[in-house]
Known about the structure:
The complex is a heterodimer of chains A (200) and B (177).
Chain A: H1 3-20, H2 26-59, H3 64-82, H4 93-117, H5 121-124, H6 127-162, H7 166-174
Helix pairs in contact in A: 2-3, 2-6, 3-4
Chain B: H1 2-6, E1 16-17, E2 38-40, H2 47-64, E3 67-72, H3 81-92, E4 102-108, E5 113-119, H4 128-144, H5 148-163, H6 170-176
Parallel strand pairs in B: 1-5, 2-3, 3-4
Antiparallel strand pairs in B: 4-5
Amino acid sequence: MNFAAVRRMxxxxxxxxxxxxxxxxxxxxxxxxxxxxWADVEAQFQRRANLIPNLAEVAQGAAENERAILTEVxxxxxxxxxxxxxxxxxxxxxxMQELAxxxxxxxxxxxxxxxxxxAYPQITSTQGYLTLQSQLExxxxxxxxxxxxxxxxxxxxxxxIRTFPDTIGANIIHGAEPLVPYTAVTEGADxxxxxxxxxx
Amino acid sequence: xxxxxxxxLLGVGSLALACGxxxxxxxxxxxxxxxxxxxDAAEILDEQFEKNLTQRLELLEQDTNVQLVIATIPDLQGYxxxxxxxxxxxxxxxxxxxxxxxxxxxxxxNERKVRIEVGLGLEGLVKDEEAAxxxxxxxxxxxxxxxxxxxxxxxxxxxxxxxxxxxxxxAELKEAA
Lengths: 200, 177
C-alpha cells in the first residue's frame, strides 16, 4: 500500500468519524427511540380505554353517584380517544397537553369510581370486580412506567439535538425540533391512583 | 389503634417491567444489592428457609427458564412500592434481557406492602388478576398473622403454577397418539 492510499483511507476514516459525531446517526436514533416509547404509551392508554366497558358493567349494580362518575369517565374516554397524538405530533405541545388533560380526567375518574365501589361489598367481593380492579391498577402502573420511559427518551433526544457536536447535524441535516414530554396537567394523571385494599 | 394494626395496605397487581434493560434511568436507583435469589434485606427470614427457597428457585429456573427473585426491604424510602419494584427489577436485570421474563416478589414488612413484579414477557402467563389473586388468597392471609415465610412460600407456589407449562395427562397422550 502506498502513501497516498493510506492518506486516502485516513481521510475517509476521519470524515466518517466526523460525520458520526455530529449527529448524523445519533439524532435519528434518539428520535426513533422516543417514538417507540410513545407507541408504548399509546398501547397502554388503549389498554385502559378497553377496560372501561367492564367498569360500566360493574357500575350498573351501584347507585346514582357511581353512575354519575361513570358518565364522566366515559366522556373523558371519548375525548381522550378523539385526540390522536401520533408519532409525528410529539413536538406539538398544545395537543400533548390536551391529551394529558383528557387522560388525567379519565384516570382520576377511574380512581374515584373504584374508591366509591368500596361501599358495596356485594360488588367488591365478586370475582369479576377483583379481576377488573387488578387489571385497572396494573394498567395504571404500566401507563406510569411507559410515560416515564417516554419522558426520559424525550429528555435524551432534546439533550442530543442541543449539545455540541450533535447539534450541528441536528440543525443542518435533520432540521430537528425538540419533542414535548408528557406532563400531567392534573395531579395523578401519570401516577397510579392509590387503591386502598384495606381489609379489617 | 387495633384497627390501625389490622389495616393492611397493599399494592397489588403486576406491572410490566423491563427486566434486563441497561440501567440507564436517571431516577435514584434503589440502593439494594442483588446477592442471590433471595435478598432478605429486612431480615425477616430464617437462614434455613432462605436456603431451601433458593434451591426451589434454582429448580424453577432449570425447569422453566424463569428467574424468580424474592426481596424483602426494610424501607421503601418514601417510594410507592410499584415504583420501587420496577426500578429494582430493572436495576437488577432479573430475567433474560431478550425474553424480558423476570419475576419478583417484593416485601416491605414495615410499610406492610407486598408486590409481585412481572416482566413484560411473562404478562401472558402471570396476568394482573392472577398476581392479585396470589397476593390476596395466598400471601396476605399468612402475612396478616406475621408469618412471612409461609406467605412467601404461598406466593412462590402460586407463581410456579402460573409459569409451569401444563403437561398433558397420560390418558390424553394416548388419545393423541
